[in-house]
Amino acid sequence: MTLKTHRVSWSIGRRLLVDGVTLEIPKGGIIGLIGPNGSGKSSLLRLLAGLRTPTEGSVTLDNDPINRLPRRTVARRIAMVEQHASTEADLSILETVRLGRTPHRTVLSPWTSRDDHVVEQALLHVGLSESRHQRWHTLSGGERQRVQIARALAQEPTELLLDEPTNHLDIQHQLELLSLIRQLPLTCVLAIHDLNLAAMFCDTLAVLHRGQCITSGRPQDVLSADLIHSVYGVRAEVSTSAHHGKPHIQYLI
Amino acid sequence: MIQPLSDDRGRPWRLLLAVLSLVSLGMSILLAASLGEMRIPFEITLKAILNGLGWGDYALNPIQQGIVWEYRLSRALVAASCGAGLALCGAILQALLRNALAEPYVLGISAGASTGAVVVMLLGIGAGALSLSLGAFLGAVLAFVLVLLLAAKLNSGPTRILLAGVAGSQLFNALTAYIVSTSANAEQARSVMFWLLGSLGGVRWPDVILAVGAVGIGLVACLFFARTLDAFSFGEETAASLGVPVTAVRLTLFALTALITATMVSLVGAVGFVGLVIPHAARFLVGPSHTRLLPASILLGANFLVLADIVSRTLVPHQVLPIGVVTALVGAPAFALILYRTRTAP
């Protein structure tokens, strides 16, 4: 276990967004951060990526406080996919994925065959090898997310953080994208809203509520009618799916 | 839209374009040294330049020699440097602020320079010790610092910095207008306006050294920061997650663009439109990658301003137009054309 938070808190002004979260990111597999809007999922992801400095506590990567490490060092270990990446620049898929090599290159180092190889593998992983010359602004939402994931993979990270990657995608593309993430050979931390999808695809779930991590564990141990009621204020019935053996949630109104 | 030049396979074409624009820059400078009130044949112009460089020993009319070497060549070189510098700053700011409308004057720099110049010119502050240029330079730097303070924190978003720039510009423009309307007579007001629109009159060799030096620093920096700027394509958060120390890079590049712009404005006044249009034209030619875009902007900007200077001196007989008028007259339609050609499907 390499990425950890130790009683980490973060606030903007007087608003406390993350409140004393202690979490260990287990190596390999997918950990899902669930919780209502404003429960601190995105903020926690940014703290884990070292993009924010905690107001209290610390985030450590191999026992080093992440905010003391050079940004470039962090970027070679941890990659982040935003909820809505957008650009005005007229970039192709290939040019976007190549940006992922940024932390591995210095000012004067030329583009190497190793860079090419890594970019190639990243494109293959997300199935965009054929359409590499397509322009960013012609891509659909699902394709854009895949391009961003390929860009993140080109950083050769050991941890990939994704902020609601399936937001605004139709169900087919949500399933496609999550299956793709599932097959990646690295540790993924993802903020996700849909509890059924979270149960299906995540190995571990951490439940955030008002900035605090109130429980974590395997989906079947975490997701219960009581928890959903106390966190979301919604009545639900949790059963075990006959298809995949994971918890299945029906909402009762 | 298909852009063969920005493509991987476009490399030979880009090299050709670079060579062509260097050749055309040389030709434009030669043309600028030859054309004017007194038309001097190319052959004599060339000889005069060789004489000046100490590479030739041709017997020439000393008046012609003086006009070419002391007056026109220095002027053309300052024009080239200004065009290059302003275009480079525009390209950098458009990337940093992720805004197509960003340009070197957006951070209040030209407004501050105008105020500084007017303070020296009309109020006589500095009593001759401060030259007009130094006054403009100090005004520009002061405005820039104020705008950054107004933006409160450097890690506030691009929109806040732009808004602070707009507010700063308005403030300094109001100050300039106040000083002009309370202290200037009609003749002074006219000369202030002329200066504000940009004028290459009166530049000499020491100015060339300053201008070329500023662009030289810019060139080195652009090689250094080109890839970093690419990482800003998807915003600051993505840049940071790609390993870019965003705050430090922003501060460095803002300071660099401010110094280059302040130098240029203090030499020739606020020549508009170059910093805005040229980066867009360059992007249209070579695509968004900054390792190509920044050199292309430099070359295109240099070419453009030398030619604009020629037009400003020859368009109306016996009169020199402010160069800002020419850049805007040519720049605005060119900009419209680029906008039209690069429009994307909604």
TrEMBL record, chain A:
Domain ABC transporter: 3-235
PROSITE patterns, per database record: ABC_TRANSPORTER_1 (PS00211), ABC_TRANSPORTER_2 (PS50893)
SUPFAM superfamilies: P-loop containing nucleoside triphosphate hydrolases
Keywords: ATP-binding, Nucleotide-binding
Matching InterPro entries: AAA+_ATPase, ABC_transporter-like_ATP-bd, ABC_transporter-like_CS, P-loop_NTPase
Superkingdom of origin: Bacteria
Identification of the protein by name: Sugar ABC transporter substrate-binding protein
From TrEMBL, chain B:
Pfam families in UniProt: FecCD
Record bears the keyword Transmembrane helix: yes
Major place of residence: membrane
This protein's record includes keyword Transit peptide: no
Subcellular location as annotated: Cell membrane
Spans traversing the lipid bilayer: 12-33, 76-97, 104-126, 132-152, 161-180, 208-226, 238-260, 266-286, 293-315, 321-340
Topology with respect to the bilayer: Multi-pass membrane protein
Keyword tags: Cell membrane, Membrane, Transmembrane, Transmembrane helix, Transport
Species for this entry: Pseudomonas asuensis
PANTHER family documented for this protein: FERRIC ENTEROBACTIN TRANSPORT SYSTEM PERMEASE PROTEIN (PTHR30472), PERMEASE OF ABC TRANSPORTER-RELATED (PTHR30472:SF67)
Taxonomic path: Bacteria, Pseudomonadati, Pseudomonadota, Gammaproteobacteria, Pseudomonadales
Protein's recorded name: ABC transporter permease
SUPFAM superfamilies per record: ABC transporter involved in vitamin B12 uptake, BtuC
